[in-house]
């Protein structure tokens, strides 16, 4: 290569921001490395962005990433594991999602079936499970010895922690059954941050031509009230994709985060020219204004391959790991951001 073009190539590369590596790009929350690899390989062996997204998240589901994705984790108040997932196609703005899915392990697969085999966006609960069974997904018990053990310990520990407030008997001392209490009081609950009670795989896949898919899969919050659906299957909250702009995905305290549609906000900011890191930070700051101690993080990526992440700093959570796979390396790379 002529020296001059070599030098200009070096100059060009050194001018690029650190969080840039071109397309294609796979990025996902946490250090869920095998999911990243599976998505990348799917894309590079001719799979579509949706195939890559689905298989990447499915990898985490079968590995039970962190115990918070897939079967056998986060038993609810009755001891049952239920799943939330969504997939979004940024080309067509189609979304498929499931909430409170019972008995079916492959939540992201069912989400895709909702997108491709119905005109609906979100199916929930027992009816979603029946839909899944009709579509050929196997019905299995999602309980494992581990989730049973977690549940038993929780029962023996007086059902602590739990998500009840303004009920009698007092949720801090009793397991219920609960009824509404006469007087609404300020929430008494001790601030309890268990960062592994809320982990979700959120993933963004962008192929070489800049087409974007985003999605999530999780088993939700440990000891949740049965019927609880978090942010993960809500478009704009758990994830969002628009092939004209990029994508975003969130993880953390979904009950709080879903009220702010952080993934939608981040994508809209990128649409107006904000870089991915700043877009993620602004989405986190918006929530922080109202809930200074919420636990959560957002990842963002744009259609030129720029990416970033942000998280809210709380005791026990000062930096957030995420995985990136692009042409810069032959393996997925774990990155981390300091929380703000
Ligand atoms: C679960 O526990 C039962 C007995 O309590 C045992 O027979 C079984 O092998 C355990 N399963 C696994 C996967 O460890
Ligand atoms: C990227 O995905 C779109 C569909 O979402 C497809 O039409 C296009 O061919 C893909 N590009 C590459 C380079 O595979
Ligand atoms: C995407 O993000 C990168 C990294 O911040 C930035 O340099 C680039 O300009 C962004 N692309 C677009 C189209 O905004």
From TrEMBL:
Superkingdom of the organism of origin: Eukaryota
Entry keyword annotation includes Protease: yes
Signal peptide bounds: 1-21
Name of one Pfam family that matches: Asparaginase_2
Residues that, per the record, bind substrate: 228-231, 251-254
Reactions performed catalytically: N(4)-(beta-N-acetyl-D-glucosaminyl)-L-asparagine + H2O = N-acetyl-beta-D-glucosaminylamine + L-aspartate + H(+)
GO process annotations (BP): proteolysis
SUPFAM superfamilies: N-terminal nucleophile aminohydrolases (Ntn hydrolases)
Catalytic center residues: 200
Cellular component terms per the entry's GO annotation: lysosome
EC id: 3.5.1.26
Residue ranges the record marks as coiled coil: none
Keyword Signal in record: yes
InterPro entries: Ntn_hydrolases_N, Peptidase_T2
Function: Cleaves the GlcNAc-Asn bond which joins oligosaccharides to the peptide of asparagine-linked glycoproteins.
Similarity comment: family membership: Belongs to the Ntn-hydrolase family.
PANTHER family tied to this protein: L-ASPARAGINASE, N(4)-(BETA-N-ACETYLGLUCOSAMINYL)-L-ASPARAGINASE
Annotated protein name in UniProt: N(4)-(Beta-N-acetylglucosaminyl)-L-asparaginase
Species classification: Eukaryota, Metazoa, Chordata, Craniata, Vertebrata
